[in-house]
């Protein structure tokens, strides 16, 4: 027996030493550090309209890992809009000191001359050294390629759009986008034998089926206007604007989408310059910069809509869904009103109708909220407003229908104006009412006495010995309804200890009386 105890002490001593040295707990409390090592791609320069698959390098500097993620964010002009954002998850198979590479989905840079910043971020909640979790590459310059190998370089580019600065277009309002064509080669264009075709396309991006339809396609020719010179030549201008005329049209189904932030008809507007025939040695030596694309959204002139119609239990704040609701339930109704059009709107009426069905639907309660002004989404962020209706108490037992409608004079798209909910009311369930009760528990040194009364009444709680003699009065007064707990320490009314044994506690009022046995221990 003594030998076993000595062996156990020796084992415990070895475990303790291992803990102190960090050997035993290292698999559980190891050092965790994932480093953002390098952004291989995109490089400092990249070609316009050429798909680039970003490649990032990371290293495990710790002695173990768990699952973590890597994010890549690319912003325009260093501090501008985010043009690319992807995240990939890495499973915990990276050994200590090992470097690995992850490839993201492709990114396609746009304008020539733009600069971008790539930001690599490690998201690891156990990382003990966050100082190396991020990495930057900037500026990333978008170029058209090496022009030094051509003595006579032919290179026209679709440089930019004018008069399309706003993000939104108005339905059936004619616009005149201006496509600027620039000559960044070293040869006047169009050259003899070359034709220069300038094209504008407008493609709608169907949000429902992810399909594209070309709705506008117009071609103009450079030689019909003028020649375009290259930089350093004073004979001709080095840029020429081409003006197109187009009338965007909205789609009523595009105004009725699940996500109101994605409302409208989405257009991709494409400008294209085509110099000569296909083939880099025979025509434009750098076709990478022949196309320019921008994205715009067409909105109806006047349109409001409702989303997110919710019913809540007034007392608990719990959401109520379709189904039976007890009669007597108080409900709060709320719905989000959106301005889906191109102009600010005034005096919008939002109506809530509660109807019951008794052969046909009939209004039993109507309330109207007037919204005096609602901005449009191209003007400010105040293009939506939460509408909260007064509390309504369900009184009927028939099925109910709740309809919320937005009413606006001149609304061009009524499809998104109403939201409805159906539910069935039921008879009110009788509430669990309080009743007289008495519960006694021996806690050792004390006796716990729990009692409940359903209404205000004169009440007495008294303790008697087995001979029927009153030894202690715990309660003798008027008490309000509710539940209470008191404790008795085995003392009589003179604060003297009573002998151990069996006692009776009696709870009594005009409507109720009950006795419970108590065993008192010294």
Q: Mind explaining what this structure looks like?
A:
With 522 residues, this protein is mostly beta strands. The protein contains one helix and 33 strands. It folds into five domains: 1-25, no CATH class; 34-143, Sandwich (Immunoglobulin-like); 156-299, Immunoglobulin-like; 304-426, Coagulation Factor XIII, Chain A, domain 1 (Distorted Sandwich); 437-520, Immunoglobulin-like. The chain is elongated. It starts with a helix and ends with a strand. The model is unreliable at 1-29 (pLDDT under 50).
- The CATH class designation of the largest domain is Mainly Beta
CATH superfamily caption of the largest domain: Immunoglobulins
Q: What ranges have pLDDT less than 50 throughout 5 or more consecutive residues? A: 1-29
Query: What proportion strand?
Result: over 45%
- Please give the share of residues in helix: under 10%
How many E strands?
Answer: 33
What is the third-level CATH name, the topology of the largest domain? Immunoglobulin-like
Rg, rounded, reads 40 Å
CATH architecture of the largest domain: Sandwich
Number of domains: 5
Structural class by SSE content = mainly beta
Form type: elongated
Terminal-residue CA separation: 43 Å
Reported for the largest beta sheet, the result is: 5 strands, mixed
Number of helices: 1
Strand order of the largest sheet: 2-8-7-4-5
Report the mean per-residue pLDDT as an integer: 80
